[in-house]
Write a structure and sequence with these properties.
about 450 residues, alpha+beta, Porin, two-stranded antiparallel sheet, 9 helices, disordered N terminus
Length: about 450
């Protein structure tokens, strides 16, 4: 009889937890909504174009000195896509797709049928991969932040308007990976490694009595693993209309703007752990979706900007001016049957100031969050300092670069670059950003009118 035997579900909750943790550990930032903004480090509240105004600072729509019929400064962008993801989140997703739990169960079954060195080595290798993923989750910033939508902008003589529709998907999670779980997985790895190296299975079993039951079978660790994660997510769909008007004060141009918007918010929040009785990753995803609550809300963005000495610009903006709290569905306590208290996901306002130099050929700007962003739930906050620059060649090719720094120190700094090109009425913008374990990309296509 084999000394080591395992139930097929022995480590399935490990990958269930990994699946849940594919959501990131971050607060809601001001946001990056287009490729130019991504390429320039997220700095756009002062130096953004008319096409960016509805997303970053509606007041920028009013910095235009011609009627709309006099030029082709209107823009339509569709699609507009930005994706930001951390390597930690990607490794967690890869682990789920690789079905490491199934691989481990199959390897253990093979060992139970034929306790040879090769099957023990396979168990060791797969268990090592699982522990490595847990280590990555515990130490890496797990983050996915994406936006997709379209927008229309039409500046006029010292005023302007714009419209956009878009959906931003973001989430936050706090991983609580215990040292005891790491040690337990380490014992599985060490014991199987010894057998793979030629040790006698009975001798190894005697050295690791806590891994086997009185029938000589490997104990299912599900009931003893304590790691869990508090996972929150928001999918924010917005319909916004930006309006702006320019005024003159002591010879300087000052613009005011507002973007009222209707929001559909899908809120999720759940605690994923090893003791929830789930049999598959799909079950874990279904349970997370069961916490979904859909809310309709009204909100608004406000902006003010001033142009000084023709080329210098300063700005102040407030995004999502009205704080919102969204409840999520929670299951009743499985032991008492008592209703679980509502868990809330918070969307808070974010204030940002900007300054920059703007000309036809060269633009450079700096944006700064005035306060640390409020977390959605229990994740770490963020406070960004963004620097970006653009140089235009041949009136058609824009070269862009930027840098984004997190003042809290919880997140990696990011360097970015991108290109913009205009051919007749067609425009395209691409961007890429990278920093630490974080990568991002953006693409938008459009035309002028």
């Amino acid at each position: 009889m084999s000394v080591f035997s395992a139930h097929r579900r022995a480590l399935k909750p490990l990958v269930i937890l990994i699946s849940a943790l594919s959501s990131p550990a971050f607060a809601i930032s001001y946001g990056v909504y287009d490729s130019r903004g991504l390429a320039m480090g997220g700095s756009a509240t002062a130096i953004g174009t008319h096409a960016q105004a509805a997303f970053y600072n509606p007041a920028l729509l009013a910095f235009h000195e011609e009627e709309e019929e006099a030029g082709r400064d209107g823009r339509v962008y569709i699609p507009n896509i930005v994706v930001q993801v951390s390597e930690g989140a990607q490794s967690a997703i890869d682990a789920v797709e690789d079905e490491l739990d199934t691989q481990l169960s199959n390897a253990i079954n093979q060992f139970n049928d034929a306790p040879i060195q090769a099957s023990a080595g396979l168990i060791r290798d797969v268990a090592t991969d699982l522990r490595d993923v847990l280590d990555d989750i515990a130490t890496d910033d797990l983050s996915i932040d994406s936006f997709i939508g379209f927008n229309i902008s039409e500046p006029s003589n010292r005023e302007g308007g714009g419209f956009y529709f878009g959906a931003r998907a973001l989430a936050g999670g706090v991983a609580n990976v215990s040292d005891a779980d790491r040690e337990l997985l380490g014992d599985y790895i060490e014991s199987m490694g010894q057998i793979a190296g030629g040790a006698d299975p009975d001798t190894v079993a005697a050295a690791y009595p806590h891994l086997i039951n009185n029938r000589g079978q490997l104990i299912d660790p599900t009931s003893t693993l304590t790691s869990n994660a508090d996972v929150s997510a928001l999918v924010v769909s917005e319909w916004g209309m930006a309006l702006a008007k320019q005024f003159e004060f002591r010879g300087q141009a000052i613009a005011l703007g507002i973007t009222p918007k209707l929001m559909r918010v899908d809120a999720f929040r759940d605690t994923a752990d090893f003791n929830d009785g789930l049999d598959s990753v799909d079950d874990a995803e279904d349970e997370f979706k069961d916490s979904q609550e859909t809310h309709l809300a009204f909100n608004a963005d406000f902006g003010i900007a001033a142009t000084i000495a023709e080329h210098y610009r300063v700005s102040l903006t407030l995004k999502d001016a009205f704080k919102k709290e969204f409840t999520t569905k929670q299951k009743a306590d499985p032991l008492t049957g008592e209703p679980a208290p509502d868990l809330k996901v918070t969307l808070s306002s974010r204030a940002r100031m900007g300054m920059g130099y703007v000309s036809d050929k060269f633009t450079i700007g700096l944006d700064y969050d005035l306060d640390e962003s409020t977390p959605m739930a229990t994740e770490a906050g963020t406070q960004e300092l963004s620097l970006g620059a653009e140089y235009v060649l041949f009136d058609s090719l824009a070269l862009r670069a930027g840098y984004r720094n997190d003042q809290t120190g919880f997140h990696e700094n990011m360097a970015s670059a991108g290109l913009g090109y205009r051919w007749k009425r067609f425009v395209v913008d691409v961007a890429y950003a990278s920093g630490g374990n974080y990568q991002a990309g953006g693409l938008q296509l459009g035309w002028t009118f």
